Sequence to fold (219 residues):
Amino acid sequence: MKNADQWVHDHRAEWSYKKLIQWVRPGEQVLNLGAGDCRLDLLLKNRMRCDLIPVDVENHNETTLPVTLYDGKTLPFPDQCVDVVLLLWVLHHAEDPAAVLSEAHRVARRAVIVFEDRNESVTDRMIFRGFHRFLRWSQGFSLPHHEWTRDQWSHLATTAGFKTSWEGLIGRQLGPFASCGIGFVWEPIHAQNRANLKTLTANSFEKRGLEVAVTGGDL
Ligand SMILES: C[S@@+](CC[C@H](N)C(=O)[O-])C[C@H]1O[C@@H](n2cnc3c(N)ncnc32)[C@H](O)[C@@H]1O
Fold:
């Protein structure tokens, strides 16, 4: 029979899986950054035939999948090597979320999917703090470094060169006593896409006999 701890781990993986099937496509290459127990990775691999790369800074793996450990700053993978990067409840645990997001941007071809906590109200923040103390006690995860809101995460994504294709509330993973989650689907805008966009914009201006003034990396 399952103990309470196993039940919580299985429930979290199932919950995240059910959310993700609207954004992850069957057979895609998925890098799960901050994979934790890797149970979600197993579900995506077995049910959607995705090619999974679990990565973390600490080994919390409870599956037979191989996990890659890294220094929390530089991923040991080439540019644009996977379709999707998952960052589920990870960025607030990272010492330097901008560095983590920048690496996710570098390796992702299609999308980076992020789950975070809402942290808008005093109640949200009390639940967030209490829940993380419980997580530290029960599973040994470090306490969060950041207690950010949706606007702060969105700002970070824009600065890192992402375009938002979806964002919204995703519910409470562990029922009424847990934080309300926010989901983000961010599309990385890569340098060559920026260059293509500039050329397209310049061509369309030229065709219409207008002066071309495309500067900087704002596109
Ligand atoms: C709350 S757990 C979430 C685990 C998993 N994503 C899930 O949804 O079950 C946070 C995870 O982030 C990892 N982590 C912390 N800092 C990180 C960093 N800089 N890069 C990647 N993972 C990190 C921790 O080791 C831990 O596995």
Observations:
- The longest strand covers residues 108-117.
- The chain has two domains: 4-188, 191-219.
